[in-house]
């Protein structure tokens, strides 16, 4: 796990630009630092202040450089802790030079396969396997990878740079292109300090984010002209022509359709088998692996399986709260009690801590956060970092692929009605109300919402959300033609694919930035691509059964002698007491709003009204806190309208 960055500019790069980018990403890789440059047509590998590999010249020693290409690498050492894993990396018999962030978990199997073609290896790192795989299979190599990645490979012969990002966008890669200058990095902040880009607000994207919660165009960011390489895409930059071309190499919906057309039988037991295999390879590491533990189904299953496999001490990290309605420590402690080798750690986030840390949190996130709940995860990662844990498992992806969110129950019931399965509909409706304590009719209404025409969806959402109210009329009028982002949810499978391709992307950004802020590699076993595909191929009735959602996970936990967790009726996740925090922070919020020159698009009167009023609706509270985060974000990155 690492941080990567680079600049490609024919008219010349100052070495200090590369140093600034490297320093801005130090939290992603404090263990080692490296540079690769093309200077006056000659290639060189250089070291920095944090370099462990000292055999190259220090970048500050360059005399009158005329750099046309520069790669930056910050290393967090997880596999092969020796200098053999140093990057940027070049093989003796291959021209490509790579800077890479991520983990390809099946690197051992790929290395053995490549050995059958006559290749030899000098390290035990997945980095060398990736570069060798690219040398052998070209761009098709990414289809063989299991894991998370974002990398760039410079190819001198064709004068191109090949970029790739993993199937689900677990690892980040953003870029800025203007004229003959390309800047790329793991995090946007590295682009903002590159000297090639002046931060500028993307107003249309901000409107969509505040009113709809997501962007119509997934590759855009809230920074004007800064884009993300979309998940499951490769990209080639032709340096001579100064042109970019993008290609999608993986399509989840298409892959699932193809699997469903085979004779393969998809069962709950089969899914658990693929999940266990995924957890097994996610435990591959040359440093100890721990886990986040909320006490919910997903993290409890990960901990139960991993603790048995490791045998040695297994550290878990949990957020607790005094508020019983959101505290899950009772369930987390049940998991801990079930395994003698677990060493637990607990943290209790508070409103005052949140206000103290909010600017640091948003700086690390690059973009605004959607609610205060991200801070709960931040505190868990901070706790893990303070206890020296460098790798954590986390449960992202289970709700999207197995239908754990309440709206999936609505889609499930609505489709039973449409298929005229009336007896099953009434049985499951009553059971869902009993087992999940949710309102089935309301959830069916939410499912039907996505079948409405765009304008009707817009009207319906505005009645139930306050994001639109927090904007002044002139700003809203500028974007009156924008429609609600497309979200396909006709079937349970459609809803899962859409959830993976849309909402999950924000959660993965929070996950990556929160963990890397404390130099921690976060791993998400539920998002190994074969596990995801299998989950989505399961029949709806395998995922929701007798009113129990995510049924295969519940069966597994029951067999692990964790029945209270297996048959929990509530669902929480990483949440915070947002209403209480708003009340506790009322003096600070009022002072901030009065003292800070508000952006022109903010409806100050309405914002102050919300500060002074009681708010109990979770969506409204999140949108209130989102606006505060946007204002803080604009201050941090010196953005104006």
Structure overview:
The chain is an alpha+beta fold. The protein folds into three domains: 2-250, Aminohydrolase, N-terminal nucleophile (Ntn) domain (Glutamine Phosphoribosylpyrophosphate, subunit 1, domain 1); 254-289 and 296-301 and 351-382 and 389-401 and 499-566, Rossmann fold (3-Layer(aba) Sandwich), CATH 3.40.50; 578-636, no CATH class. The protein contains 27 helices and 19 strands. The strands form three sheets. It has an eight-stranded mixed beta sheet. Strands 6-7-8-9-13-14 form a six-stranded antiparallel beta sheet. Helix 9 links the parallel strand 16 (314-319) and strand 17 (342-347). The longest helix is centred in the C-terminal third of the chain and has 19 residues, at 618-636.
């Amino acid at each position: 796990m690492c941080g990567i960055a680079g600049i490609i500019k024919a008219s010349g790069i100052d070495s200090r630009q590369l140093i600034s980018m490297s320093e801005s990403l130090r939290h992603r890789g404090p263990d080692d630092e490296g540079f690769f440059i093309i200077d006056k047509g000659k290639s060189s590998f250089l070291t920095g202040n944090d370099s462990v590999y000292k055999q190259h010249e220090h970048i500050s020693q360059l005399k009158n450089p005329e750099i046309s290409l520069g790669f930056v690498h910050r290393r967090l050492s997880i596999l092969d802790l020796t200098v053999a894993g140093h990057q940027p990396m070049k093989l003796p018999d291959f021209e490509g030079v790579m800077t890479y962030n991520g983990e390809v978990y099946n690197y051992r199997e790929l290395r053995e396969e490549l050995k059958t073609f006559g290749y030899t290896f000098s390290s035990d790192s997945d980095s060398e396997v990736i570069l060798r795989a690219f040398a052998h299979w070209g761009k098709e190599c990414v289809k063989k990878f299991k894991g998370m990645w974002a990398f760039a490979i410079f190819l001198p012969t064709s004068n191109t740079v090949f970029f790739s990002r993993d199937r689900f966008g677990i690892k980040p890669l953003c870029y800025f292109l203007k004229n003959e200058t390309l800047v790329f990095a793991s995090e946007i902040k590295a682009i903002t300090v590159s000297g090639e880009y002046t931060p500028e607000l993307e107003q249309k994207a901000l409107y969509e984010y505040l009113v709809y919660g997501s962007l119509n165009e997934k590759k855009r960011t809230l920074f004007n002209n800064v884009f993300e390489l979309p998940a499951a895409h490769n990209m080639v930059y032709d340096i001579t022509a100064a042109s970019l071309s993008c290609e999608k190499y993986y399509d989840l919906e298409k892959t699932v359709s193809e699997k469903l057309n085979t004779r393969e039988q998809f069962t709950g037991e089969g899914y658990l088998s693929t999940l266990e295999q995924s957890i097994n390879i996610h435990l591959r590491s040359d440093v100890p692996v721990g886990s986040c533990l909320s006490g919910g189904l997903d993290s409890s299953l990960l901990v139960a399986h991993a603790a048995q496999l490791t045998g040695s001490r297994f550290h878990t990290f949990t957020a607790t709260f005094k508020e019983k309605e959101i505290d899950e420590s009772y369930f987390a402690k049940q998991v801990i009690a079930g395994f003698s080798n677990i060493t637990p750690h607990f943290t209790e986030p508070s409103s005052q801590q949140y206000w103290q840390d909010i600017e640091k949190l948003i700086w690390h996130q690059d973009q605004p956060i959607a609610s205060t709940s991200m801070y709960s995860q931040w505190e868990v990662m901070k706790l893990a970092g303070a206890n020296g844990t460098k790798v954590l498992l986390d449960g992202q992806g289970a709700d999207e692929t197995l239908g754990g969110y309440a709206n999936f129950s609505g889609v499930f019931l609505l489709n039973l009605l449409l298929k005229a399965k009336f007896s099953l509909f009434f049985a499951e409706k009553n059971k869902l109300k009993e087992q999940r304590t949710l309102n089935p009719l309301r959830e069916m209404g939410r499912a039907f919402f996505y079948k409405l025409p765009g304008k009707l969806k817009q009207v319906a959402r505005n009645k139930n959300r306050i994001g639109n109210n927090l904007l002044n009329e002139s700003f809203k009028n500028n974007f009156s033609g924008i429609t609600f982002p497309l979200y396909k949810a006709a079937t349970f499978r459609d809803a899962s694919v859409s959830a993976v391709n849309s909402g999950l992307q924000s959660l993965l950004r929070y996950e990556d930035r929160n963990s890397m802020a404390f130099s921690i590699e976060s791993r998400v076993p539920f998002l190994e691509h074969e596990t995801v595909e299998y989950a989505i191929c399961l029949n709806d009735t395998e995922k929701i059964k007798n009113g129990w959602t995510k049924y295969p996970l519940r069966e597994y936990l029951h067999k692990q002698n964790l029945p209270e967790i297996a048959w929990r009726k509530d669902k929480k996740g990483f949440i915070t007491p947002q209403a209480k925090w708003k009340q506790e922070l009322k003096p600070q919020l009022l002072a901030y709003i009065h003292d800070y020159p508000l952006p022109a698009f903010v409806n100050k009167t309405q914002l102050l009204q919300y500060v002074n009023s009681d708010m109990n609706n979770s969506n409204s509270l999140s949108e209130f806190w989102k606006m505060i985060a946007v204002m803080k974000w604009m201050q941090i990155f010196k953005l104006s309208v």
